[in-house]
Design brief:
Layout (H helix, E strand, L loop, with lengths): L6 H4 L1 H12 L11 E12 L2 E11 L2 H8 L4 E11 L7 E15 L4 E6 L5 E4 L2 H8 L1 E9 L9 E9 L6 H9 L10 E5 L2
Antiparallel strand pairs: 1-2, 2-7, 3-4, 3-8, 4-5, 5-6, 8-9
Length: 195
């Protein structure tokens, strides 16, 4: 009596590789992943208000660019914290500020529109690169008044930025949570806040 081995067992190694690729998600096949980098951050007091200046670099991935080009607005958060460092336990949060910017593409005019969701200021650009450059330039962003900070208090500033997945249309959120490209975030960057 002849016994024939199923084809899938003969190629078990190939099957394991295919399953591993499928389990890692579509990120394996992405040509361009989204990347956000914080290059420089500083803070100072202007008219008795602590303000932050920063240079951020946004590079959209293939899927996020495609969604933007197809009329899906992308909202980015910029989260800034001032903390008082402590030795034995975690730092004490003094102030936390989250700033939102929305990027849209208008296909009829072929314009990219960047909207500050806090002030409702809008800026139009002819190219995506120009819009991303403006998004990455933070200049004199007010955080808190000087009177809210104790004199001679040592502070650590922290900043991070990323794509706000919760602002996407509901049908896209699950896909966004499962894809590393949509979860693009800079991670925290720290600096010493100068009084």
């Amino acid at each position: 009596m002849d016994f024939t081995m199923p084809v899938w067992l003969k190629h078990k190694f190939l099957l394991v590789i295919i399953l591993a690729i499928l389990m890692t998600g579509s990120g394996f096949f992405q040509l361009y992943a989204a990347e956000i980098t914080i290059n420089k951050v500083s803070s100072k007091i202007v008219n008795d208000i602590y303000v932050v200046n920063a240079n951020l670099e946004y590079e959209l991935g293939e899927k996020t660019t495609e969604a933007l080009e197809n009329g899906i607005p992308l909202t980015f958060y910029i989260e800034i914290e001032f903390e008082q460092p402590r030795k034995l336990i975690w730092n004490k949060e003094i102030v936390r500020h989250v700033h939102y910017m929305q990027l849209e593409h208008h296909p009829l005019s072929d314009q990219y529109v960047l909207t500050n969701l806090t002030t409702s200021d809008q800026f139009s650009f002819n190219s995506l690169n120009d819009a991303l450059a403006k998004l990455g330039k933070i200049s004199k962003l007010p955080i808190t008044e000087k009177k809210n900070i104790e004199p001679d208090q040592r502070l650590i500033g922290r900043i991070r930025t990323g794509l706000d997945i919760e602002s996407l249309p509901p049908p896209m959120r699950l896909q966004a949570w499962l894809s590393s490209e949509w979860r693009a975030s800079s991670g925290w960057h720290e600096w010493v806040v100068q009084p």
